[in-house]
Amino acid sequence: MNLTLKKLNMKKVKYLLFSSLFLILYVTKTANAQEQLDEYLALAVKNNPAVKSAYAQFEAALQKSPQVTGLPDPTLTVSAFGRMIETRLGTQEARFSFMQMFPWFGTNKAKSEVANLIAEASFQNYLEVRKQVIFDVTSAYVELYALTEIIKLKEEDLKILNAYKELAISRFESGKAPMVNAVKVDIQKDAALAEIEWLKEELEPIQTKFNLLTAREVQSAINVADTLFIEDQNPLLENEMELLENHPSIKALKQKEASYGYQEQVAKKEGFPNIGLGLDYSIISKRPVDDLERNGQDAIMPMVSLSLPVYRKKYRASAKEAQLMEESLIHQQESQMNSLVNEYQSALYELNKAKKQVALYDRQIKSAAQANKLLVSGFSNDLTDFDEVLQMNQDVLMYKTQKIEAIKNALIAKANLEYLLSKSENNENEY
């Protein structure tokens, strides 16, 4: 009795140790795979030309505010030649006129708001480009993983076919099966070799795309993870509508909409006069007359000027243009939101569908593998036709390939959901 209990306890200990070791390996593999991908994403975010271009456009937009809020250059007029004016105090030798124009009150502030909002919209465009590049890199990485794994499956299948050929020849030599079975294996081997070659050729453009996205040399080697896993929990599915509204493409349109609200104010304020303040200074020479009070005294005269915005049509048209653009951007937001919701629903469907497919293929692989063993055993004992063995082997290979494709689809759908719903808004240090 005690011996039996000890054996049971030992089995429990071994099971727990094995389970713990498997969990550690699983977590380690998952972490390593994510670390590899994160390194490539960091490279892309830092060096991708599209990202760098978008950020340069944002920095350029920041330079707009000082331009639109600066005062116009002052004017200086000098008159010192020709027949000058004779005054009571003397002859005018030279005249200097200085004038500085100022826009109507609040005009520059409204212009500054327009420029700042456009710059904020440009920053949101930059964030969207980053997110798109992150999605593209992730998708290319997942495609490389899927192709690499399928090639491995095909190569492993070649070994299985070689074993089947030896079995077929052995059965032929013992007079229990025709030689045509070995020929059938050769046909499948040729097809498998051709598929492997095609798949390797298919890898090349994806590798090129991946290296270009990460701004590396086209022929650079890529470290693809041995295993990629699908998380049980769907990413960021709480408050999805709120998260979609915070998508950079939506926020950029909101900033542009607000900028046209201020642009309308600018148009109205530009319909008011500009105010000019200046100074007129004249150099007067002395008259050859005694006892003339303030003889030769220079003349100083402050000046005020006003522009006369009498041509009102252009100001009304500018304000109307701003109103219509604001309305257009409201409709653009609605259209873009509809597109994001539709894309979100599609990505969520693809993710859930792929998860169910992976579970289905796991069951089918297990059952097909058992059936395959029974068929091979039956062929060895003259109970099964060799065609059934080959067909079942192809079925096992098909289920394994479809499982990898389903994993690929799930990971791409997950990446798309993260692109649509990412909480890391305005976070430049995400990678």
From TrEMBL:
Pfam families: OEP. InterPro entries: MdtP/NodT-like, OMP_efflux. This is TolC family protein. The keyword Methyltransferase does not apply. The keyword Hydrolase does not apply. Gene3D superfamilies: Outer membrane efflux proteins (OEP) (1.20.1600.10). Belongs to the outer membrane factor (OMF) (TC 1.B.17) family. Residues 1-33 form the signal peptide.
